[in-house]
Write a structure and sequence with these properties.
single chain, ten-stranded mixed β-sheet, globular, about 450 residues, Adenylosuccinate Synthetase, subunit A, domain 2, alpha/beta, Adenylosuccinate Synthetase, Chain A, domain 1, about 20% strand, 2 domains, about 30% helix, 21 strands
Length: about 450
């Protein structure tokens, strides 16, 4: 029996097209489109671009990327960092794009951490203080709630606190004062104003307990939508140019395991690599001129960089993530117009030919920093990809390509394989993802070098 649920994860540095794959799974999706999108990492910093058949566009941040399809719901799990103010702004944009009921289709786990204006202000202050040694950030405070919750677990504001205004205001005031001691005066609104806005959020959105997701999973097909990419993972990314978030399949598999279920694991890759901001990028090629209508340099993220397909880094990502059942390859329309794009199958590092990067146990930041220094010295060894990118990607990564994307819309997607209307394929692979896998629970953990993370 084919699995009903899916997990969609970007194997690169983000921006590979997770949103458009999730949109396809909800709007078309083969035999049984998904009815709910569950967000399982990151927060309001996500930017998943979806374009509808009639040309409407939205950059999905906290709402699931299937929201353009009527009736598709979004659930923000306890692993999300929920920003109520950003949610309100996103809901307003969706309303202007023809989706007036987005908030009515949203549920939020009451145990999810809140991202507040005080977190965002502290995030920007820390990044500015790094000067030329900036790590790259969206400036939205995503790492700060995890940092604060590790240091002050009893005082960390949670989504459920929005139902108790006095307790929430106390937590917000304590948070603001502690962060101001660390970074200086915070450019953020008064606590009373934030408290009122968060109470309004609680009045509009259904806050749920932990058991809710298990019931949701039994009602219909669910797609778990990841944020950012595996090469930015807090445990396996190239430290310190990483995120405070687990970007692999792990969080989603933990949630599924709690319900006694599994899912098909889909890794999303472009035909070329991209990266926002600083950090190792072995295949970067500044001579490439590739269209990027929905990505640009940002004041906090830094420049948007492009390079050739990096099979070495993506094989590393697959191993770090525990493998994938199938791949979705995006931006094939761009590759068709740019024959200069190549595949990097190895690196030259100080005269040594390297085709594999070792995946170390989670938590060894010293090893990840050493890997980063090594990658900054690496030079790509590339060859031509030929005209059949899906086959080339499958061969390079050792995972079947099940979905080919030739544009930003759902109708630009093609299932790879033979299918008829009377006998639609079990997408992406017959029987894929049916073997239970051991999920690794996310816990409070102390990281090497005295740092701790969520």
């Amino acid at each position: 029996m084919t699995n009903r649920h899916y997990i969609v994860v970007d194997l690169g540095f983000g921006d590979a097209g997770k949103g458009t794959v999730v949109d396809w799974l909800c709007s078309r999706g083969g035999a049984e489109p998904a009815t709910t999108v569950v967000r399982f990492n990151g927060g309001a910093q996500a930017g998943h671009n979806v374009v509808t058949a009639d040309g409407r566009h939205h950059n999905f941040a906290q709402f699931g990327s299937g929201t353009f399809t009527p009736g598709v719901r979004t659930h923000l799990s306890r692993f999300m960092l929920v920003d109520p103010l950003a949610l309100a702004a996103e809901a307003a944009h969706l309303a202007s794009a023809g989706v007036p009921d987005a908030l009515g289709r949203l549920t939020v786990d009451a145990g999810a951490l809140l991202t507040t204006p005080y977190h965002a202000a502290a995030n920007r202050a820390r990044e500015l203080a790094r000067g030329r040694r900036r790590h790259g950030s969206c400036g939205m405070g995503i790492g700060e709630p995890a940092r604060y919750a590790l240091d002050h677990p009893a005082d960390a504001p949670l989504a459920g606190d929005c139902l108790d205004p006095p307790a929430l205001v106390r937590k917000l005031g304590t948070l603001r004062d502690r962060l101001a001691i660390q970074v200086g005066t915070l450019d953020a609104p008064p606590v009373a104003d934030v408290g009122r806005a968060y109470r309004a959020f609680a009045d509009r959105v259904a806050l749920t307990d932990r058991a809710f997701l298990g019931r949701l999973l039994r009602e219909g097909p669910v797609v778990f939508e990841g944020a950012q990419g595996v090469l930015l993972d807090e445990w396996h990314g190239f430290h310190p140019y990483t995120t405070w978030s687990t970007t692999t399949f792990a969080n989603a598999e933990t949630l599924l395991a709690e319900a006694g279920l599994t899912a098909t694991r889909i890794g999303v890759v472009r035909c070329y690599q991209t990266r926002h901001g600083p950090g190792p990028f072995v295949t970067e090629d500044r001579s490439l001129e590739l269209p990027e209508p929905h990505n640009a340099a940002g004041a906090w993220q830094g420049e948007f960089r492009a390079g050739h397909f990096d099979a070495v880094a993506l094989r590393y990502a697959l191993e770090a993530a525990g493998g994938a059942d199938a791949l979705a390859v995006t931006h094939l329309d761009t590759a068709a117009c740019h024959p200069e794009l190549r595949i990097c199958r190895g690196y030259d590092i100080d005269g040594e030919k390297v085709t594999r990067l070792d995946v170390r146990p989670a938590g060894d930041l010293a090893a990840q920093e050493a890997l980063t220094r090594r990658l900054l010295r690496a030079r790509p060894v590339c060859d031509g990809a030929g005209g059949d990118w899906p086959s080339a990607v499958a061969e390079a990564l050792g995972v079947p390509v099940a979905l080919a994307s030739h544009g930003p819309r759902a109708l630009d997607k093609r299932i790879l394989g033979v299918a008829t209307a009377a006998n639609p394929p079990a997408w992406p692979l017959s029987g894929a993802g049916t073997t239970p896998r051991r999920a690794t629970p996310r816990r409070w953990q102390r990281r090497s070098g005295g740092r701790r993370r969520w």
